[in-house]
Design goal:
Layout (H helix, E strand, L loop, with lengths): L5 E2 L2 H5 L21 H10 E3 L2 E3 L5 E4 L9 H13 L6 E4 L3 H6 L19 H23 L6 E4 L2 E4 L5 E3 H9 L6 E2 L19 H6 L14 E7 L6 E5 L10 E7 L3 E6 L2 H9 L3 E4 L8 H12 L5 E6 L2 H6 L3 E9 L11 E6 L4 E6 L3 H12 L6 E6 L13 H11 L6 E4 L2 H6 L7 E9 L5 E10 L2 H5 L31 E7 L14 H19 L3 H8 L4 H14 L10 E9 L2 E11 L5 E11 L6 H20 L5 E2 L2 E2 L17 E6 L14 H16 L17
Parallel strand pairs: 4-5, 10-20, 18-19, 22-23, 26-29
Antiparallel strand pairs: 1-9, 2-3, 3-4, 6-7, 7-8, 10-13, 11-14, 12-13, 15-23, 16-21, 17-18, 17-20, 21-22, 24-25, 25-26, 27-28
Length: about 725
């Protein structure tokens, strides 16, 4: 059965060929804007905004979302190519620029790459783009042959007239197709007819990364380029008071020392190391501002106040939880605490900028090219139409390079003081650690009530902690409520709770310390899954019930979440004897529309040494575009989630972050990584995310296994601060 026809606005697909004007940067790493020759090539080869076909049958697919190691580039290209019916071996990709998108009335849609939206948020219109291009190419061939459309078929970029056997290729008709009007309607393939979507194809960006050809922002070189590094006030809310550059200006390679905005100073030199060496020697006086006395202890006191506060925002309410808890035969209470964490991308923040009175250009790794363009225009003091941002593959994002482009503003501010000179700003790791937008700190008080049969009759969840939206985007809040805080605990939707509790109250007492929060891979579902899944294990233990069976009884109305839980339990051998000294723990949740579960196997020796042996993980993302990429993403998510559980903690002293580098903010080692077995079980009918969901089940599955091994409930993180020796 075919899907319903998709209506296409004619104007939507015509905008641009005549208005592209400034031309295209066909090579992602071209140091300057495209030449007139390249611009003409792009225009004449463009079938529509998503598809450029060269005379030699090379297919260039334009991808607006950013590639940062997660595979979005390949997945979106698969979706376009599926409908295009092109030769996959001839496919390559390029980024359109946000400036081109602006000039063409946002024809490529959103450039934002976060919230596991890369594929699911653009799958419909990119597939439409491929289907429309296909029909235009076929129409060009039928016009040349003067034959009906229904007598032609297409496969692997070859159009064939079935009655006569005549054939041509996309490359031969692309120029003619580009002159046609797009069809009013196109039909997208039924999923059962997909030939490329759902196949484990190799990633398009792997080879360049293996050979070193891939250029990241930190690698970028341009003629006449200078290098800069920066230091901002290490106290949140503090400002730059003064600096003495009299000696520093005479150091080798130094060109200038400049104030950046009101809180930072930068050194510009021939090389980055010369700039850093000079900055390290620069005497600086800071205005510490109002937050110099803030500490982890004072923040904790603030959160403790929220746990018992009378007022709180309600995120989910069913029945009368107060009455249910009063009537419970047994009540269980626990308080959990989750710390600040930094993104700590392997590639520190960086951007290269060139400013003149008439134009400003920026080359940078960004999760949102449009936001980077806006930051560029604001810092440049120019209209957006006179600015451009050239996206570069990211050396890690995790949310840090999405909503926040402070590094872009800084680069432009420096370049503005050196008109016409390209300046590459590269942060030190220490600057990156001290000036992040951190995973928000929260605490949670959990109270559950059991009846005489050991069944859950009431659950009260009180979250006290920071709101991301209150700081980052207050316009997204609804009547003062930050719904992001309730991810994984909401009544329904992409982050709906996976259980039906007869009496439930989930609420948030907002407490906002002066530490800037931000979206951190997985965001609030990470700690909420720990709170819920660890506490459910506590309730199961108090009820004298098997943790799997305890969950199953609450999941009758959540069949997809139950299915992934059952899958990991079966594959891991839940209920069967584990190897000597090995213990298991479970976790399940719904995040970013996907249903995910994990079963962890761990051991803890008499000295408290933890070893995570194995994790079985299942995910139902609805549709699976590239199963190989999904497996890799799930495996990588456990590196991220377990690193956070084991080591991730930013502490605050004297108004700033204490951690400076990976010696004080470590990641897990290869030797610590467990074997990960991935079950991909797409049930169809919806589009779920991949990059973030399984992070959420990593920690609680391990924590529940640790309890099984030691008899200890761990409610404060990271584990590096906990004595795991068996009770």
């Amino acid at each position: 059965m075919r899907q319903q026809p998709v209506n296409i606005a004619r104007r939507e697909f015509l905008i641009g060929t005549a208005t592209a004007g400034a031309g295209f940067s066909l090579g992602m790493y071209l140091p300057l804007a495209g030449s007139a020759e390249l611009a003409e090539q792009a225009v004449t080869s463009e079938v529509n905004a998503w598809v450029v076909i060269e005379p030699d049958d090379t297919v260039i697919i334009r991808i607006a979302r950013s590639e940062m190691g997660q595979g979005t580039l390949t997945g979106l290209a698969q979706m376009v190519a599926e409908e295009l019916e092109c030769d996959w071996s001839r496919v390559t990709t390029e980024y359109p620029t946000p400036g081109q998108n602006l000039a063409r009335e946002r024809i490529w849609g959103s450039f934002s790459t976060g919230g596991s939206q890369g594929i699911r948020g653009s799958q419909l219109y990119v597939r439409k783009g491929g289907a429309i291009a296909r029909e235009m190419l076929i129409e060009a061939a039928t016009e040349a042959w003067d034959v009906p459309r229904d007598e032609c078929r297409v496969s692997a970029s070859v159009i064939t007239h079935t009655p006569t056997g005549r054939a041509t290729t996309y490359g031969k008709v692309a120029a003619a197709a580009a002159r046609l009007f797009p069809p009013e309607q196109v039909e997208l393939k039924d999923p059962k007819d997909w030939k490329l979507i759902g196949k484990p194809v190799k990633r398009l960006d792997t080879l360049d990364k293996l050979t070193g050809k891939q250029v990241f922002g930190a690698d970028l070189q341009m003629p006449g380029m200078l290098n800069a590094t920066i230091r901002a006030c290490p106290i949140f809310g503090g400002k730059l008071e003064s600096f003495d550059d009299s000696r520093v200006r005479k150091m080798p390679g130094v060109h200038t020392v400049v104030r950046v905005e009101d809180d930072a100073v930068a050194v510009v030199a021939d090389t980055w190391w010369q700039a850093k060496t000079a900055l390290d020697a620069l005497p600086v006086t800071w205005d510490k501002g109002p937050n110099a006395g803030v500490s982890s202890a004072s923040i904790e006191q603030m959160l403790d106040g929220g746990l018992g506060a009378d007022e709180a925002f309600v995120g989910n309410q069913v029945g009368d939880v107060g009455k249910a808890l009063k009537g419970a035969v047994k009540t269980v209470e626990a308080v959990y605490a989750y710390p600040y964490q930094n993104h700590a991308t392997m590639e520190p923040m960086n951007a290269t900028a060139r400013w003149t009175e008439d134009r400003c250009e920026v080359w940078c790794p960004t999760q949102n090219g449009e936001a980077a363009l806006q930051a560029t225009a604001e810092a440049a003091g120019l209209p957006a139409a006179k600015c451009e941002v050239y996206k570069i593959h990211l050396g890690g994002g995790f949310g840090r390079r999405g909503a926040f482009h402070d590094f872009v503003r800084q680069a432009v501010a420096i370049a503005r003081q050196m008109p016409g000179t390209p300046v590459k700003l590269l942060w030190t790791r220490e600057e990156d650690m001290q000036h992040g937008h951190y995973h928000p700190i929260t605490k949670a008080r959990m109270v559950g009530g059991l009846d005489g049969k050991g069944d859950l009759v009431g659950l009260h969840v009180r979250i006290s902690g920071q709101s991301i939206l209150a700081s980052v985007n207050p316009n997204w809040m609804e009547n003062g409520v930050d719904k992001f805080t309730f991810q994984g605990l909401l009544p329904d939707g992409d982050h709906g709770i996976s259980y039906s509790v007869p009496n439930l109250l989930v609420e948030h007492a907002m407490r906002n310390p002066p530490v800037p929060p931000g979206f951190w891979r997985g965001v609030n579902v990470n700690q909420n899954a720990i709170y819920m899944e660890s506490f459910l294990d506590e309730l199961a233990h108090a009820a004298g019930k098997d943790p799997l069976e305890f969950r199953r009884k609450l999941m009758a109305d959540h069949p997809k979440s139950l299915a992934v839980l059952n899958a990991v339990a079966k594959k891991a051998g839940w209920g069967k004897r584990a190897p000597e000294g090995v213990h298991r723990g479970l976790a399940v949740c719904k995040a970013f529309a996907s249903h995910v579960a994990a079963c962890a196997e761990v051991s803890v020796d008499n000295n408290g040494r933890l070893r995570i042996h194995r994790i079985v993980a299942a995910t139902d993302p609805g549709y699976a575009v590239n199963p190989q990429q999904i497996e890799a993403q799930v495996e990588g998510s456990f590196v991220f989630g377990l690193s956070a559980l084991l080591y991730g903690e930013c502490t605050i002293k004297d108004g700033g972050v204490e951690q400076r580098n990976f010696d004080s903010y470590p990641s897990m080692l290869i030797s610590e990584m467990p074997r990960v077995e991935v079950i991909v079980m797409p049930s169809g009918g919806f589009w779920g995310g991949i990059g973030e969901p399984t992070i959420a089940v990593a920690a609680p599955a391990v924590l529940n296994a640790i309890f099984a091994a030691t008899g200890k409930r761990i409610r404060r993180f990271p584990l590096k601060n906990t004595d795991l020796r068996p009770a």
